Amino acid sequence: MGQKVHPKVFRIGVIDTWNSKWFARQSKKYSELLREDVEIRSFLNRKLGEAGLASVDIERSANGVAVTINTSRPGMVIGRGGTGVEQLRKDLTRIIGRGRRKVNVKVNVQEVGNPEQNAQVVVRNVIDQIQKRLPFRRVMKHTIDQIMRAGALGAKVILAGRLNGAEIARTEKLSTGKIPLQTLRANVEYARGAARTTYGAIGVKVWIYRGEVFAEKNRHEPA
Fold this sequence. Notes:
The chain is α/β, with parallel strands linked by helices.
């Protein structure tokens, strides 16, 4: 099962949680809010692609929406004097309030502690290097080395497409360490993306194993 399901989805409720936290009583309301979440994330991925965007958390309440942007380069998102965050808030207000009453939008920016162990940030770096026409094998090896030096216990990178402009598309894989996909307590980061080149799209997938997560034992519990 772990080989066929998104690692994060597979572990939700065990060691991970949802990126969107809200509740809708009506099915029509649910579809509208879900569409808004997709539009918000698509907009931020386009606008903040070069700012090391890791993830976007959305939390809704009766009075408004709180959008938390996790990034490896918070300075690029905040801007000089906070102008970047204010512009993002205005843009998100137009997306969220479309066709409904005006809502209060709050934008928070958090820095990713260890970007070399964040799969989404690593995928973005690989895409940038592939689009600059760097040799894909060198990119894969350098990426794996960076991840392992950052303290990961395992890593895997897969590239698929017309690599180096080859006539026939193929898949190349490089991995090291271990990636326990079926262990629910294993903290496995996963992300994917596509590099747009003159030869077509190059698919990029990254797995990062960061160790196991155990529930904290109650110290007052008798032995």
